[in-house]
Amino acid sequence: PSSPAASAAEIFGAGSVVSGFIKALRKLWYMILIVTIVSAGIVYGVSKYRYVPMYRSQASFSVDTSTSALMGNGSLVMDQVKDTLPYVLTSEHMKNLVCDDLGLASFDADVQVSANEYANLFTMTVTAGDAGLCDAVLRSLLDNFPGASVYVMGSVTLQTLDISAVASEPYNGRQCYDNALRGGVFGLLFSVAAVFVYSLYAKTICDPQDFKKNLNLECIAAVPHIEFKKRRRSFDRHMLIYNEKTGFGFSESFRTMRIRLERECRKTGAKCLFVTSSVAGEGKSTVAANIALSLAENGKKVVLADCDFRNPSVADTLGIDVPESGGIAEVLSGKARLGDTVMHISKWGLDVLPGSEGRLDPAKLLGSSKLAELLRWLKERYDYVIVDTPPAAMLADVLAMAESADGALYVVRQDSARLSQISEGLELLSLGGVRIFGAVLNNVKGTPSGSGRYGYGYGYGKYGKYGSKYGYYAAKNEYGDDSAASDDAAKGGGAEPDEQ
């Protein structure tokens, strides 16, 4: 017999499968709906294209065998009639007689004859593509049967008990709709089965404890998903800890994250922290911006660098405008001075090195030594350098800059990226020698288990669109001349290295 622990494990495993299946249904319900509708539509279209209206006429009759040539008592004769009569009515000889009678070139109808098991009662059904032809063939069969059967059964008379009128509509008129219904049911069952298989293999991170269980990685914070209610008046919709609309739970999750990161950085001496994720859309830029703000709020000298050259979004996240001189890409390509691009946001005590326009192929920027030199130079002048990087599992861009990282924070959106994608991103970082300080479960809906330790359960919804822009305070006074290269001149932000 199985132990109680084994039974509990089986129950937990089954519960996990069911829970995963329900989540997959909620996530992919629209795909199930689409597959169901498309399947029904395809079957309906094919049925409509191949549809041929069919009509049916029927007659009920009995057989008078008193003058027949069949031998035996009543029951024996009737058994012979039941065996012979369908053969006669569907024989080629009978069909030829009907064609001659009606002047038909061919016999384009189907004839079926059935006998009642307990009585002298027969039913003949004629099916054809024309209602008039059905009725004419049926009546001709009844009229010509005595002449056709005389050589087989002798003189036999059919007594018609009931005959249908000419059909007014095809009996298969609802065939297209019935087939469409069957097609829709098939599509529904197929799509639900596909979602079930998907739920078994497409595992995602839904709870802080999933990191330890599946990836042996510690979750240092769970960031709640915030919903901005629609209002007539415009208001700040930026997902920042200084925005009171985000709520206490959102801000506190980043302060908890900051405390843990500072503790880890003191142990390892780390200063340059990469913030990355597996795929796009997991909120790594929001996490990078807010952890930088939280560190600056704690009195640290922090610079936030947007190194996602393909899709720079730090400026939008913070609600600031990129300087006319450009961003970090222009600095690395020699088109702008660092002093003209580093922005000091005085109200937050934060320096920002934003990105400008996205680049399809940033290999030249990543492959050169200038980026490593820039990050190294920033590390010498700041307490912390927070770097927003491209997704680790999608691109090899992170590997190109991995040597500059002292550690990384891995952002995972709840129930989004698959475990295989997360594992791939972590593996690439490991190959680049990047130390993972922990994971952040982002966009948490509901209260995750262990929320007392990791995060807070608040009401959530969709991220709000970016609203009004914050102004920025240009740091040109501090970075515009050669004296800005000194540490004293870098008090408000980063200075420009000689080699830039």
Share of helix, binned: 40-55%
* Unreliable stretches: 1-13, 449-500
Q: Helix-strand pattern, N to C?
A: HEHHEEHEHHEHEHEHHHEEHHEHEHEHEH
Overall average residue pLDDT:
82
Biggest sheet features: 9 strands, mixed
C-alpha termini separation: 73 Å
Task: Give the overall silhouette.
Answer: rod-shaped
Tell me the structural class. alpha/beta
Beta strand count: 13
Rg from alpha-carbon coordinates? 40 Å
The number of helical elements comes to: 17
Beta content comes to 15-25%
Largest sheet, spatial ordering of strands: 5-12-11-6-10-7-9-8-13
Describe the model.
This protein has 500 residues and is α/β, with parallel strands linked by helices. It contains 17 helices and 13 strands. The strands form two sheets. It has a nine-stranded mixed β-sheet with strand order 5-12-11-6-10-7-9-8-13, sandwiched between helices. Strands 2-3-1-4 form a four-stranded antiparallel β-sheet, covered by helices on one side. Strand 11 (407-413), helix 15 and strand 12 form a beta-alpha-beta unit. It is rod-shaped.
Please give a handful of descriptors for the protein shown.
17 helices, alpha/beta, rod-shaped
Describe the SSE topology.
Blueprint: H1 4-50, E1 55-64, H2 74-89, H3 92-102, E2 110-115, E3 122-128, H4 131-153, E4 157-163, H5 175-201, H6 208-215, E5 219-224, H7 248-268, E6 272-277, H8 284-297, E7 302-306, H9 314-318, H10 328-332, H11 338-341, E8 343-345, E9 350-353, H12 363-367, H13 370-381, E10 384-388, H14 397-400, E11 407-413, H15 419-431, E12 436-444, H16 451-454, E13 473-474, H17 476-479
